[in-house]
Amino acid sequence: MIQLTGNTLTINEIKKVLFDNERVEIAKASMEKVNQSHEAVQRIVKEKKVVYGITTGFGKFSDVYIDSENVEELQLNLIHSHACGVGEPFPEMVSRAMLLLRANALSKGFSGVRPLIIETLVQFINAGIHPVVPQQGSLGASGDLAPLSHLALAIMGEGEVFYKGERVPTEVALNDTGIEPVTLQAKEGLALINGTQAMTAMGVVAYIEAEQLAKQSELISSITIEALQGIIDAFDEDVHVARGYQQQVDVARRMREYLSDSKLITRQGELRVQDAYSLRCIPQVHGASWQALDYVKEKLEIEINAATDNPLIFDDGEKVISGGNFHGQPIAIAMDFMKIAVAELANISERRIERLVNPSLNDLPGFLSPEPGLQSGAMIMQYAAASLVSENKTLAHPASVDSIPSSANQEDHVSMGTIAARHAYQIIQNSRRVLAIEMICAMQGAEYRGIEKMATATKEFYDKGREIVPSIVKDRIFSKDIEALAEWLTV
C-alpha cells in the first residue's frame, strides 16, 4: 500500500502504482489538513470575501464577483468550458499517473477541497478507472487546464474512461464499481485543474522509460564493441576519473564489467590504435545523458510533491494568496533537457549501426548480409535508424523557449511544458527503435565473430534477444523484427 502525504511520494513508489497496481491510501494526518483547508474555503464563501477562484471568475474574469449561491455552478462551468483537449488521448499509464499526482498534491492541504474529492481520485486509481485525457491543448501555465479538466469530468461522472481494457462512458465504470460521482463545491474545480500534473505525469512515465533505455544502451553497445572487436583500453578507470564526471566514470565501469571476460575485445595496437568516437566515447556521451537524466529525476521528485494550484490557503484561511506555482517552467526545461539526452543516445547508436553495416568500416560481410549482393541484409535498417534520429532532432527543439499569451494577455507567459513532455516521450519511442536496430545488427556481428567468445553478461543478453529476433539467414520483413525487439525492450 502506498500512502500519500503530499510530501513523500517517490518515482519508485509511482512505478509500483503504475506497473504493479499497488493500492493507494491517504495518510490520516494529511486528511486532517485537507479538512481544515476546506473549512477555510467555506468561511470565505459564507463571509463573502473576494478571493480569486472561490468568489470570483477566472483568468481575465478575476475581477468579477460571484454570489455564494452560484459557486457550485461556477465550478461546473469551469470544468465544462475548460475541457478543450484535442487529439489522441494520453497513454492509459499517464492518465493513471495524473490521478495519483493530483491526489498527492491535494493531500498537502493547501487547496481547500473536501476530503471526498481526494478519496474519489484514490477510488479511481484502486479500481483501475483511468480518464480519457486528450494530449493536446495545454499551454503548461495556469496549470494543465485542458487535460486536467478531462480528468475532473471523470470524477463528476462525465466524459470517458479506460476501464478493463475498453474505452467506455464514465458512468459505465462507475456503475460497475459503485463509485459515486461528485458534485463540485467552491474552489474544487479550480483545485483539480490548476496544476502541472499532466506534464509531470507524462514526464514521470517518460523518465521511467528513458532510465531503462539508458541502461539497455550500455549492454547493446557492449555487444557492438564485441562485434567490432573494440579497444577496451578506452574504458580504463584512470581515463574517466581524470575528467571527473561521476556518470562518465560509472558508464565506463559498467562497460568494463559487461565485457570483463570477453574474448572479442582488443587492446591498443592489436588491430588498431584507436576506435572511432562512437565506440571510444561511449562513456563521455552516455555519461552526459545520465547527467541530464539525474537532473530530470531531481526536478520530477520535487514537482510530484509540490502544491501547484492557485490560490493557496495557509494559516487556516487567514492567508490566501494568488501566486504562480502552476507555471510549468521547471518541468518544461527538464523535459527539454531529457529530449536532448535521449536523442543523443539514439544519435550515437545510429553511428554505431553504420560501423556495423558499412563494409568500408569493418571486416564483416557487407550490411551483415548472408549473401552480399543477392540479399541486402541490414542495409535499410540503417536507413530507418537515420530517419528516426533525424525526426528526433526536430522533436528535440526546445518547447520551453516558446510562449503565446492567453486569457486576454492576463496570462502573458506560458511554459509549453506539456508539449515538451509529450515530445520527450516520442523521442524515447524513436530512440528505443534505433537501439533495437543496433541490437539486431550487433547480435548478427557477434554471431559472425563467434558467440562462444562473447562475455558472460553480453552473451546472456544476446540469448534473450535471439528469443525475439532470430539470426539473419535470409532477407525477411525486418520491420517486424525491429518492432518486436523494441516492444521487448519496453517491458
From TrEMBL:
Keyword Cytoplasm: yes
Keyword RNA-binding: no
Superkingdom of this protein's organism: Bacteria
Gene that encodes the chain: hutH
Pfam families tied to this protein: Lyase_aromatic (PF00221)
InterPro entries according to UniProt: Aromatic_Lyase, Fumarase/histidase_N, HutH, L-Aspartase-like, Phe/His_NH3-lyase_AS
UniProt keyword terms in alphabetical order: Cytoplasm, Histidine metabolism, Lyase
Matches recorded under PROSITE patterns: PAL_HISTIDASE
Pathway membership, UniProt: Amino-acid degradation; L-histidine degradation into L-glutamate; N-formimidoyl-L-glutamate from L-histidine: step 1/3
Family from the record: Belongs to the PAL/histidase family.
Crosslink position(s): 5-imidazolinone (Ala-Gly): 141-143
MF annotations from Gene Ontology: histidine ammonia-lyase activity
GO cellular component: cytoplasm
Annotated GO biological process: L-histidine catabolic process to glutamate and formamide; L-histidine catabolic process to glutamate and formate
Modified residues (2,3-didehydroalanine (Ser)): 142
Membrane-crossing segments per the record: none
PTM annotation: Contains an active site 4-methylidene-imidazol-5-one (MIO), which is formed autocatalytically by cyclization and dehydration of residues Ala-Ser-Gly.
Protein name per UniProt: Histidine ammonia-lyase
Enzyme Commission code: 4.3.1.3
Localization annotation: Cytoplasm
Catalytic activity, reaction form: L-histidine = trans-urocanate + NH4(+)
Organism: Heyndrickxia sporothermodurans
